[in-house]
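Standup notes, protein team

Yesterday: finished cleaning the Novosphingobium subterraneum set.
Today: Glutamate--tRNA ligase structure.
Blockers: none.

Input for Glutamate--tRNA ligase:
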Amino acid sequence: MASATDTVSAGSPGNAPVVTRFAPSPTGFLHIGGARTALFNWLYARHNGGKYLLRIEDTDRARSTDAAIEAIFDGLNWLGLGGDEEPVFQFARSERHAQVAHQMLEAGHAYRCYLTQEELAARREKAQAERRPFRIDSEWRDATPDQWPADQSYVVRMKAPREGETTIPDRVQGFITVQNSELDDFIVLRSDGTPTYMLAVVVDDHDMGVTHVIRGDDHINNAFRQLVIVRAMNEIEGGWPDPIYAHIPLIHGADGAKLSKRHGALGVDAYRDEMGLLPEAVFNYLLRLGWGHGDEEIISRDQAVEWFDIANVNKGASRFDLKKLLNLNGHYIREADDARLAGLVAPRLAVLEPGFDAKAGMDLLTRAMPVLKVRAADLNELATSSVFLFAQRPLPMAEKAAALLTDDSRAILAKVVAALEAENGWTIEGLEATLKQIAEELGIGLGKIAQPLRASLTGQTTSPGIFDVLALLGKDESLARIRDQLA
């Protein structure tokens, strides 16, 4: 067991190759905070040439669902954070967990505790009345087999150290010390023989060869209890080195409170499906939440692998800034391949414009991306801004657009139609020259032509540049839309 002053080794256990793990509970979506934890585990393993593993901690049978498991894998794969091996499912290993509990029981590192729920409740109430912390002090801790009552259920508790202190040199938090007297004799095996989370995590980490436990700082207290199990098993059979711990701060909202639904979307799926973000943008943003490399803001996946070190993660909580994420997403949209963007936009466009035929319209949608993506912050904006390309005639008119189509502006459009009918090349350069010539002849600014022309071509008051709009729609469709307004 732990000595009077016990410190966890700061080096890699046995100088073994780095193995990290991400171990979510499948009780819902992949939380954005969980995604960052997965990212840091993935990066640390990649940076050190190690392995990154996945474990589904599905021991809560009442709340674990297949849909949640699928959502977690889906979100991880979208971010490019799939595991290097097949995932481990914790519940399927219950027999192995129980086996370890019995090993510790037989070796005297754990004990049968026959305290009833009523007895525990009475002692807890007494501690509260006396204003002192409640600690398990079971008379069964040192009981011998001949003292065990027959035909009475029991739990298996660890014999936690009672003297001295334990210090963990956490890779993020620094040295953390706990007085061993603060550790209680926690349960590792329930009265029905099923293992607790505290036991299952330790056994799984050992059997999976995990060397570095990188997780949220809400697990710091668990680390000291889990070390009791690790060290007991190391005494029993050897080969159970202390893992290296790195507890990363949780993510807070812009107001400094713990991230919750009121701060916006929590699940990775919402950022992809509802908000229309790109995985590389979310990857980059999560990377910069609490970790940095100088003043670099735009960091590629390869750069992240090269530069990442868990020791450079901030000790304090990071604040989630949705505006910053959207700005970053806009950058990645502008950098993205046009055909890929068109493929991502097409399903969203089909919802907005039922007449859109993806098979027939993909070429036009792809050709439109260079001018549409310049102003877009997300895929939803890209879809909205591309609706005009596939809208059915006669175009529905926004109120402000209809207001631009006065008798005077229609007279101008009539001259535009006549000039455009004679246009042969239908290039951006040729169209620009023609419209500028009309403006000069009429003695008006180009905007006096562009505004009603945009309204008649798109049904809106905003769009890409008017010459780009004409070029994308083509001669026949452009002229037909203008004539619709003149009619």
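Follow-up from PR in the comments: The first helix runs from residue 32 to 47.
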